[in-house]
Amino acid sequence: MLKLSGCILILLASSGMAYSFVRGLRLELRQMEQLLGLLAAMEGEITYSRCPLPDLLAHLAGRQSAPFGEILAEAGRRMGDNQQADLPLLWKSVCAQYKRQLALTGESYQVLLRAGEAFSYTSLESALQMLRFGQKKMDFLLKTRQREFDVRRKLCCCLCYTAGLGSMILLL
């Protein structure tokens, strides 16, 4: 009876682990989609809004969900407080502060960091080209991740259940 209880608990633990991995994969896809939308919104705001950069970021922050809304709001506050700051460096420090809340992979995170470089260009066209390049790269990364999602989900589930089955065999 005790071994049966242990087997059931191992099965529940491996199911929870598989669920956790798949949830992380979905969160990564959702945040990649949000980042793509953020880059498009930044391009639109820079193109059509002629307001100061801290106000522009505060306006964008109101329309973005967490954690990107929080990143934009914090960057806007810091830029408003320190007008002479190196804007890409300030953007990178804000992104680093919120890195634990992001489920982005290395390449996606680099696109987010590079988006801050658009604020330092004096030419509007240069900033827009930087954001368009980021959008293209994020679109490619997102499509690649979406194609890989089913394979990665199956792999995570198989590995978790195989580990659980192996543990149950060792228990018995």
Short description:
The protein is mainly alpha-helical and 172 residues long.
Task: Report on this structure.
The longest helix has 48 residues, at 124-171. Helix content is 82%, strand content 0%. The N and C termini lie close together (11 Å). α2 (53-63) packs antiparallel against α3 and α5 runs antiparallel to α6 (124-171). It contains six helices and no strands. 20% of the residues are buried. By secondary structure, it is mostly helical.
Task: Lay out the secondary structure.
Layout: H1 2-48, H2 53-63, H3 68-81, H4 87-97, H5 106-115, H6 124-171
Helix pairs in contact: 1-6, 2-3, 3-4, 4-5, 5-6
How would a textbook summarize the main sheet?
none
Task: Supply Rg.
Answer: 21 Å
Q: Roughly what fraction of the amino acids lie in strands?
A: under 5%
Distance between the termini: 11 Å
Helix/strand order? HHHHHH
Which secondary-structure class do the elements indicate? mainly alpha
> Which stretches are low in confidence, meaning pLDDT under 50 for 5 or more residues running?
none
Principal-axes shape call: elongated
Q: How many helix segments?
A: 6
Helix content: over 70%
* Average pLDDT level: 89
Q: Please give the number of β-strands.
A: 0
What attributes characterize this protein structure?
mainly alpha; 172 residues; 0% strand; 6 helices
